[in-house]
User: Fold this.
Amino acid sequence: MPPLSQFFKAAGLARPLHAVIIAQPEARVAMAGNRTGWKPMKQTLKALLGPNLQRIRTAQMMPKLISKSFGLLERECPICGYQGHFTAEIHFPDVYRFDAVCPQCTSLPRTRLLWLAIQRHGLVTPSDYLLHFAPEKSVSRFLRPMPGRYVTADLMDPVADLRINIEAIDLDDDIADVIVCSHVLEHVDDRRALKELFRILKPGGKLLAMVPMVDGWPTTYENPEPLDREQRKFHYGRSDHKRRYGRDFLERLAEPGFAVEEVGFGGAESLAYGLLLGENLYFCRKPLLAAPAS
Ligand SMILES: [Zn+2]
Assistant:
């Protein structure tokens, strides 16, 4: 377990609370004033602490957060068979999700969802050519042995087999049997990317797509203004995202010609395997016959 002082430092509270209060010159003046009673004292403290108040509250919550970080309940990882507590997924300060990471194989909720969907629905076969975009290690590990040919693709990652821009893919038409594209489309021009993915899949080929989605929203939110990194963090939750998807994501998937199905798991399995409640995988199939030109 990391020392408590690291968490205090991360919260911007390197010094003890009493030192922060006494170090404020205004505090010394106010303390010496003639206001008496608990209420005025509380208001004075609040006014003086100002921006430090939230940091102090965060610091007070730290012991609770630390214990939760090591898991609330026992779960099971369907990929590696681990049984026990999952740890928190932390990308400080944007993402903090409890019961998320399998400590044995580092799988995330979305990794376990993908694995379960592939296993239950037989989505990958030994004769397939599978193209995996933006490959995460914990996914590659179990995906690599499943198809006959496994190829990774990424625009930036130097260890990927192919350096590919998903919006303009330098590959022939109708070559892949399966494409795995998890948490990629929210970072790019998704309409261009989906057209390209459709093009390079063989007729009857499958796209397995996942994105973060606000299930209660009927439509996707995209701000028409050009946004900088900080603004994108405000609007989309992450500085490298381009939108927040709503339920119309399914319609976007269907635009190039895919037949789209949702694959998800119910309450009991979602809890047992530590899935993100309500998260689905989108199974998109390219038709065997091309649609007649209109
Ligand atoms: Zn695991």
